[in-house]
Every structure is written in C-alpha cells, then in structure tokens.
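Quick start: read one record
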Amino acid sequence: MRGYNDTLFGEHARGPADKVKFGAPHVVDFGKNMKNSPDGKMYIVGHGASVKTEPQSWMQGSEVYIARVIPTWKHINNRDSWEFFSATDGWTNSLEAATPIVHWANRTGVVTMTYLPAAGRYIMCVSTPSVSPSTVGTFDSYFLESAAITGPFRYVSYLRRFGEQAYFLNIPSKFASSSPDADQAVGAYLSYSANFARSRQLASNPPGGGYWWTLSAIRFVP
C-alpha cells in the first residue's frame, strides 16, 4: 500500500470522526460461477456509517451498502468501473452518492449476502456487538431477507449472543437445498467462527461453535 487511503475505493478512517461505507466488504454469493447474478456482474456488500458520532469498527456500523462491477480483474481493480447503489440515482459511479440498503443506528456490522434460489430470496447475515461499542465482548447476529438485491429487506430472526461471539456469518450456496422440503422450508448451512477474544470466559453457544470454522445446519421456514 502507498498510504492509508490506498484502498479499493480510496476510503479511509484515520480518526474516530472519519467514516467509510464499505468496511469489511464481502462478495455476494450467487452460486457456482455466479450463475444467479441478476445481470452477470459481481456484487459486494459492506458495513459503514455516515454520522461522525456513531461508532464504526471492523465489527460495527450503522448502515449496509452495496456495489457492483463487471467480474474481470481489470474492472475490479479500476475504481471508475464500480457502480454504487443510490436510492435516488439508481446505480451510479459516485461513491459519495451511494445510500444504504439497510440502516440501523449502531446495530450493523460484518455483513454477508447469499441468494437462495429455492426460496427466491437474498439472505443477509449481520453480526454486531451485543453492547456498543465493545468488539471483545459477546456479539448478536441477525438475518434479513429480500426478493430484490437492493431491498427493501425484511427482518427474519435475531440471535442474541450467538456464538457467544460469532462473526463472519455466511450461508455458502454450495450447501443450500435446491428446492423446499415438504414443509416448504429451505435447508442450508450457517458458516461462522466465534470466541476469538476471551475464549475461556465465553460459552460455545450453540454447542460445537468456537474459534474455528463451524458449519451448522439451519432451515428457513415460511
């Protein structure tokens, strides 16, 4: 890196009042070879904040943003090739014009998104500190869903102190059901790690989780 602002979009946060829109960005999971991308483009989601007094860290924010690009290395490495979603302008090349697709003051954090064809829904996984702004205590996690990649997103479930300190939650499309079961529920696996800090003081909740890669079977029931 050539400097603190040598990032994908030139964003930086040198001090508490500086905010970014795409903290800890993750590629949206559209399945093998992005076969379920709505337009053949690669999308990323990231958490951020825009109010100077709101806390922001690798694990906390107040907003979720989304961007897209043609999936070639030349386009990905070129800032001018990226498009950012704006509620007023649609897709724009202006990062400044980007608006959040989710807003919850001090309650967003590391975010991932997966498209589940069997449900016809984009599932968003978010982790955030149980008590703001601590990033070494327990974390809460929750799921949102939408029929459109830019929302609006609907609340599905909130898991307080999941892990008890679970982070980087995501749903690998590779392990998701290809069709609903007899109850119209869609099966999948939740991928996460947990308890990186104070591991001896925190419980494994649910059992099997910890400071390693965990895959837990889950179901989305209509």
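The helical segments are 73-76.
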